[in-house]
Amino acid sequence: MRPVRIQTFMSLDGVMQAPGGPEEDTSGGFALGGWSQPYWDEMMGEVMSQAMAEEYDLLLGRRTYDIFAAHWPNAGEDNPVTQKFNKATKYVATSEPDTLQWQNSQAIIGDVAAAIAELKQGDGLPLSVQGSSQLIQTLLENQLADELFLWTFPVVLGSGKRLFGNGTVPLGLELDDVKTSTTGVTMARYRPAGDVKIGSFALDDQ
To answer: What pLDDT is recorded for position 105?
Structure first.
C-alpha cells in the first residue's frame, strides 16, 4: 500500500495559498503571496532537506503542477529538489491530460477519489502532496490521507485558500513529531486517529 502524505505551509488562520512568492497564485485577488519567505531559517532548511531526501512520487492538483512545471525543470540539476522532482512520477488531477509536458507525468481523470484509492493499493513509492489545496479537500473528504506534515507560520492572512475548507470532514489527529524554528514556525507531523473524541468539563451533579 502506498501512503499519501500531505505536506503544506499554512498561516495561523489556515491559509495555504501562495506561500512562495507574489505571483505564485493570485486567484481570488490574493495579494499576500510570498508570506512564508521572511520566516525561513537554517533549521527549516535542514528539516526540508531531510523530508526531500526521502523517496517518493508526487500527487498534485493541476494549478500546483503548472507552477512546478514552469519552475523545477529549469532550476538546475545541481539542486537536489530539482533532481527529485524531475525523477519522480507526477500523478496529476486534471481534465486536460494531453497538456502534461513535464517528464514522467501521468493524468488522473474522472473520479479522482476512486483513482487515488486504487493508486494507493498498488505497489510503489509513497505519494507526496505539495500545495494542491483543491486536491487536498478531496483527499480529506474521502479519508485518503495517511499523514499531514503541517508547517504553521506565525502570521494571520485573513483570506485565501485554506487547508481545512468548507465541508471538511471531522477527523481526530495524533501528533507524531513537532519542531519549532527560531522564527516561530511549528513543523508538526500528524497521523489520522479516527473519529473526533468528545467529552465534557461539566461537574457531576452533587
So the answer is: 96
Yes or no: say if 133 and 162 are a contact pair by the CB < 8 Å rule.
yes
Q: Are strands 147-153 and 4-11 parallel, antiparallel or unpaired?
A: parallel
Q: In what order do the strands lie in the sheet with 147-153?
A: 105-108, 90-93, 57-61, 127-130, 4-11, 147-153, 186-192, 173-180
Residue indicated by cell numbers 501521468 = 106
What local confidence, expressed as pLDDT, does residue 53 receive? Answer: 83
Structure confidence at residue 51 as a pLDDT band (50, 70, 90): confident
* pLDDT score for 157: 98
Distance CA 15, CA 28 (A): 13
Q: Determine the Cα–Cα distance for residues 173 and 194; give it in Å rounded to an integer.
A: 7
Which three cell numbers, joined as nine digits, stand for 73? 525543470
Alpha carbons 146 and 129: distance in angstroms, whole number: 11
Helix (H, G, I), strand (E, B) or coil at 30: coil
Rounded percentage of the chain residues whose pLDDT exceeds 90: 77
In angstroms and rounded to an integer, the radius of gyration of the C-alpha atoms of the chain is: 18
DSSP for residue 2? P
